[in-house]
Amino acid sequence: MSLQNAIGHNGNGNGSNDAVPGTNSTGVVITNSAAPLPAGVHLPLYMDNHATTQLDPRVLDAMMPYFTGKFGNAASRNHQFGWEAEKAVEIAREQIAKLIGATAKEIIFTSGATESDNLALKGVAEMYRERGRHIITQVTEHKAILDTCKKLEKQGFRVTYLPVMADGLIDLDDLKRAIVTEGPEKTILVSIMFANNEIGVIQPIAEIGKICHEKGVFFHTDAVQAVGKVPVDVQAMNIDMLSISAHKLYGPKGVGALYVRRRNPRVQITEQINGGGHERGMRSGTLNVPGIVGLGAACEICMNEMAGEAVREAELRDHLRARLENSLDYVHVNGNMEHHLPGNLNMSFVYVEGESLLMGINDIAVSSGSACTSATLEPSYVLKALGLGDDVAHSSIRFGLGRFNTRAEVDYVADKVIDVVRKLRELSPLYEMVKEGIDLTKIEWAAH
Amino acid sequence: MAYSDKVVDHYENPRNVGTLDKSSEAVGTGLVGAPECGDVMRLQIRVNPATQVIEDAKFKTFGCGSAIASSSLATEWVKGRTINQALTISNTDIVKELALPPVKIHCSVLAEDAIRAAIGDWKKKNGVAEETHAEVAVAS
Fold it and tell me: In whole angstroms, what is the distance from residue A322 CA to residue B93 CA?
C-alpha cells in the first residue's frame, strides 16, 4: 500500500478554489487557496503527531490475522486458539521490553497510557501507603498524572508539584530538596514525564533516576512521547515504572503498557482492576490481542528505524523553524531545543491569536496553546508554567512532525503559516502598535 | 469547531480593515480587550460633525475568527448610521447575524464595547455630552 493510499487524501489535487478574493477596500484576504498544490502534498495534511500517529501499514499487516482467523483468548490454556494468541502476546511483550531495555516479565498490558499512569501512581500509593505519604511530580505533566495526583491528595497523600524553569526542564536541586527520606511524610514515588507532549522538552531522566535510587524512592516516567522516538533504557536510567501508548508510535489506539521493575529494586503495585487475574494479577481483563500485537510490531519498527528517523525528523523540524524564523519577526521558540524530541516544534507567533491562525491554515492539522481552542478558555498550562505571558501562550502553535511527513509538506506548511501570519498581522492592532514603538505593557488594558 | 459561513466569510474577507488618524477631531477610537485574554479590538469611526453620521469605520483585531468577524461586521453596521443609531447595535444582534456559539458570545460583547468606546471617544473630543446627544436623538 502506498502512503498516499494509506492516508486517504481527499482527492482535491488542485486545492480548493472556494475562497473569493476580497472586495473590501483594504484588499486583505486571509486565505488564498487558488494556488495549485505542490507535488507530493495532499490535503488535509497531518502534522499533529503528538496527539496521535497514523497506523503504520506494516503494523496493520501484523495485526490483521488476530482480527480474523487467530481470534483466540490468550488466557485459554487448553486449546490451539488460546496458545496461538498467548504466543503472539508473548512475542509482543519481548518486542516492547527490548525497545526500553527491560525484560518481558516486566511489561503489563493496559488500555493506554492514561491507564498505565493511573495504575503506576495509584498502585504504588496504595501498596506503600505505610512506608510514606509523599509523592513528587511536576507542573507540566499530562493530565493523566496531574488528575491522578489530585485524587491521591484527596486520599491523604501529599503531592509536591515541582516548577519548571523557563526552558521547561525541572531543576534537579529542587527535586533533591523535595525528597523526604524520614518520617510518615517520607517520599515513596517520583513521577516525571520523559518528554513533554506540548513543548517536546526531554527531562534529565537518567539524573532523576540516579537521585531517586540513591534516596530509595521509586521513579515512574510517563514516556508516551519518547518511546520509539529517542533512546530509552530503564536500566541505565534507573527507571522503575514507565508508561507507553501504542498510538503515539504508529500503533493502534486503545492499547498501552506499563513497565514495572522486578529487581533492584522490585516494585509491587496494588491492582486497580479486579477480575480474572490476568497480567499476574496486576491488570485483569481479557487481553486485547490484536492491539498488543500491533504495539509489539510498532515497537520493533521503532527499534530498527528510530536512529535514522530521528535524524530525518530533526532536519525537517529545523528546516521548518528556520523558514519561519527567517520570514517572520516576533516569533518565539518555546522550550529547550537542545534536550528536545526530534519531531516537535512549538512556536509563538506573537500578536497573532492561535485559533485565528489555525482557521487560516485549516487544511493543515496542528495544535494551538490558545485558550480559544480549549473548552476552559484558559491558555496552555504548560506554556504558562514556562513563565510565558498569556498573550504569548495564546499565539502558540505546536507542530508535530512524524514518520510520514515529507520535506514538500514542511515547505507547504511553512509557506502557508508565513502567509497567514503576515495577513493576520495586517489585521492585528497589537502588531501595528508595536511597530509604531508603543510599549504594550504600558497600556492599561481592560481585562474582560 | 465548525464556524458559520458568515464567520468564515468575514474572516476570509474582512471588511474595513485599517487605521484612521486617531489625532483627528473627527475620528473616535475604541480600543477594548486585553492581550492576555486573547482578544483586542480597535474600532475607529470618522463622524460628520454636522450630521453625526458615521462616514467611515475601520478596525483591527487580535483574536479568534469570531472576534475578527464580530468587529468586521460592526464596521459594516456602523457605517452610514448616526452615532445614536450605532449605539442601538447590541451584541445579541451580532450573535444572531454570525450564528456565534455560546463560547464565542464574549467576542460579540467586545464588538459592542468597541462601538461604544469609539463613539465615547468621539464625543469626548467634540465636547458632546450624553444629554445633548439624547436631545439630538429625539430631534432626529
Answer: 45
Alpha carbons A202 and A360: distance in angstroms, whole number: 31
Query: How far is it, in rounded angstroms, from Cα A10 to Cα A64?
Result: 25
Reply yes or no on domain A57-301 having CATH 1.10.10.10: no
Tens-digit pLDDT profile for residues B88-119:
999 999 999 999 999 899 999 999 999 999 99
CB A228 within 8 A of CB A59: no
Question: pLDDT tens-digit profile of A273-320?
Answer: 999 999 999 999 999 999 999 999 999 999 999 999 999 999 999 999
Q: How far is B67 from chain A (nearest CA, A)?
A: 9
- Whole-angstrom CA distances from A251 to A119, A120, A179, A219 are 21, 22, 37, 26
Q: Where in chain A is the domain with CATH 3.40.640.10?
A: 57-301
Per-residue confidence at A253, pLDDT binned at 50, 70, 90?
A: very high
Residue in this structure with the C-alpha cell 493543515, named with its chain if needed: A364
> Dihedral of the CA atoms A309, A315, A318, A323 (nearest 10)?
-130
Catalytic site includes residue A302: no
CATH class of this structure's domain A3-54+306-442: alpha beta
Judged by a CB distance cut-off of 8 A, whether residue B20 touches chain A is: no
Tell which B residues from 65 to 124 touch A, by Cβ distance under 8 Å: 65, 67-68, 103, 106, 109-110, 113
pLDDT (average), residues B1-23: 93
Of the candidate ranges A38-52, A283-297, A369-383, the one whose mean pLDDT is the lowest: A369-383
Q: What domains are there in chain B, each with its CATH number?
A: 5-139 (3.90.1010.10)
What ipTM score was computed for the predicted complex, to two decimals? 0.90
Closest residue in A to B110 (Cα) is A448
Cis amide bond preceding A252, omega within 30: no
Helices (H), B52-104: 65-78, 83-87, 91-98
| Nearby residues of A336 by Cβ (< 8 Å), 6 or more positions away | A167, A168, A169, A201
Candidates A359, A392, A434, A440, partner chain B, best to mutate (most B CBs within 10 A) = A359
The stretch A412-416 carries a mean pLDDT of: 97
Asked if A401 has any chain B CB less than 8 Å from its own CB, the reply is: no
Residues A4-35 have pLDDT tens digits of: 333 333 333 343 333 334 334 455 666 655 67
The answer to whether the Cβ–Cβ distance between A429 and B60 falls below 8 Å is yes
